[in-house]
Amino acid sequence: MSIGFDYFFYYSNQNVGVNKKINDTVGAVTCLGYKAREIRISGGFFSKRFKMFLAILKSNAEIIVLRNDFLLPIVYFPILLWKRLCGVVVVIDIPTPMTTVIREFFTGPVTGRLVGVLKTILMIAQHPWTLWPANCVLEYSDESWWFSLGIKNKIRKEGNGILLPERSPDFNTLRNSFDCKFVGVGLIADWHGYDRLICGLGEYYKNLAPSTGCPRQVSFEVIGDGPAIPSLKALVTKEGLTEYVKFSGVIVGSDLERVLLESDIAVGTLGLHRKGLFSAAPLKNREYCSVGLPFVCSHDDPDFLEQDFVRFLEANDKAVDIADLLCWLDSLKQDTSYRDKIYSYCKLHIDYRGKWKRILNKILPDACR
């Protein structure tokens, strides 16, 4: 008889990355032989929390995973404690370190910061004691001492992953071009730091001497919507780069995979320092890796710390040195199978099947394995 695994989370069709992460998690755990389900909860501020309470109460799964509720975790504390006493394995997934969440409360207009004060009070008053019923608390980065009280030995640092399809990409059909195409994917905000790459492109083209003949053409395709898009478009116009920077909107599925396969360098997050974060495990980095695409970012990522196909840039607001990245790309291309090797690394270290096998082996009693 299969062991039940229920993953509870608040669902929104706008949170494409979150939905994919949980869908991949459930798919991976299913592949491991568990009876896994994703439990989507939606509704108003209070109604969705009441629905979540009832859903957890009705669950018969031997393992429950709850994506943490930063504002009102007290609602679930009694039912999680009861489940734990009944022998259920309880896992709480904290997608962002709580100190970072508090810092984000105080960005934006003054009125929003006043609301941020209330949210901060709620968070500090309800954490970390509401996490104590958990067998395991998943984090991708270090948490502050306050939010680690009583759970330090339960915290498992684990970066995000991805569920790789059975069919691997065909890298033999990729173009072999002297030119270079950058690509960036996400719900684009200021802290993605794409302005750094655009400014770098501006400097790259300004510094090209007229005598260079046919220069190496470098372009950048931005995929996704988000609050930073208008300012990025204005910056592209200011830098005179409308010929080289393309805004494609939201692209998903096989169409997104095609664009990634046709690109040369992916752009991770280049501005996390703007919200005081220097370590992260973004899903986009895993998506890039899953199609053998090298990428750049300006933060530590626990799954890629010593890999030559990742270029770690300084965490500042300076323009990206495009010429330096072109030299880095050329060095990677000296190995004609470099994209196959990136994909192989993803299959071995980033695939959710391997990650969740390690997590479950660690937290499940021997009798349940």
Walk me through what this model shows.
Helix 7 (229-239) links the parallel strand 8 (218-223) and strand 9 (245-249). Helix 1 (16-31) packs across helix 12, helix 4 (98-105) packs antiparallel against helix 5 and helix 6 (194-206) packs parallel to helix 7. By secondary structure, the protein is α/β, with parallel strands linked by helices. The chain has helices spanning 16-31, 47-58, 77-85, 98-105, 110-126, 194-206, 229-239, 253-261, 283-290, 322-333, 338-350, 352-363, and strands at residues 4-10, 35-41, 63-67, 89-93, 136-139, 155-157, 180-185, 218-223, 245-249, 265-267, 295-297, 310-312. The mean pLDDT is 90. It has 12 helices and 12 strands. The termini are close together. The strands form 2 sheets. It has a 6-stranded parallel β-sheet with strand order 2-1-3-4-5-6, with helices on both faces. Strands 9-8-7-10-11-12 form a 6-stranded parallel β-sheet, sandwiched between helices. 38% of the residues lie in helices and 15% in strands.
Short descriptors:
single chain; 369 residues; alpha/beta; 6-stranded parallel beta sheet; 12 helices; 12 strands
Shape: globular
Gyration radius over CA: 22 Å
**DSSP summary, beta strand count:** 12
Helical coverage, percent range: 25-40%
Cα end-to-end separation: 12 Å
* Continuous helix count: 12
**Can you give the mean pLDDT?**
90
Topology:
Elements: E1 4-10, H1 16-31, E2 35-41, H2 47-58, E3 63-67, H3 77-85, E4 89-93, H4 98-105, H5 110-126, E5 136-139, E6 155-157, E7 180-185, H6 194-206, E8 218-223, H7 229-239, E9 245-249, H8 253-261, E10 265-267, H9 283-290, E11 295-297, E12 310-312, H10 322-333, H11 338-350, H12 352-363
Helix pairs in contact: 1-12, 4-5, 6-7
